[in-house]
Amino acid sequence: VALDRGFHTVFTIHDYLLACPTGTLFLQSAQKTCTFRPMSIACLCTNCDVRSYQHKLLRVGRRIVQDRFGLVPSGVRHFIVPSRFVQHLMSPYLPQDATFHWVPNPIEIDYDAPANVSESDTFVFLGRVTPEKGAVMFARAAAAERVPCRFIGEGIALDAIARANPQAIL
After folding, report:
1. pLDDT score of 93
2. What is the pLDDT of residue 87?
3. What is the mean pLDDT, run by run of 10 residues, along the chain of 170 residues?
4. 169 alpha-carbon distance from chain centroid
5. Strand 123-126 to 99-102 pairing
């Protein structure tokens, strides 16, 4: 509606849903980055959704409806990106005349001298605790190397992390 009425529109890219039906560009079953072109035949035939293939098909339908009827992203010309990496990754799937507005991380931090890593004995995972973010892989690696690890965040992988590494601090 906003695009149809000629409103100036800016879309904030905080995931990859403008290209990838699951929004992750990640193959859940293989636990690796997806190399298929989003919405290609190979993409559509691959079960990469964290829930099920049927759920992926719902997401494919959403992607088609958004673009065909909502004109997102095809009708949008301005995009806010959190990093140059996201801009580079997403630009092939957005209009050629898209303008990117980089907005750096809004969290203010004090920049101190780098920490002396040799004084630390715990590895930390900070973020959404999900398989596509590598949380379970991180837990397994820490368990295999017998190094302390701590997880700071919420997500669906907490139980899997506890099974993969009972010593992990959640």
Report:
1. 96
2. 95
3. 90 93 90 93 94 94 94 95 93 96 80 85 91 89 96 94 97
4. 24
5. unpaired
DSSP output for the chain: -TTTTT---EEE-SSSTTT-TTSS-EETTTTEE--SPTTSHHHHTS---SS-HHHHHHHHHHHHHHHHTT-TTTT--EEEESSHHHHHHHGGGS-TT-EEEE----------SPP-GGG---EEEES---GGGTHHHHHHHHHHHT--EEEES--TTHHHHHHH-TT-B-
* Residue that is written with structure tokens 């529109």 in the block: 9
Please state the length of the chain: 170
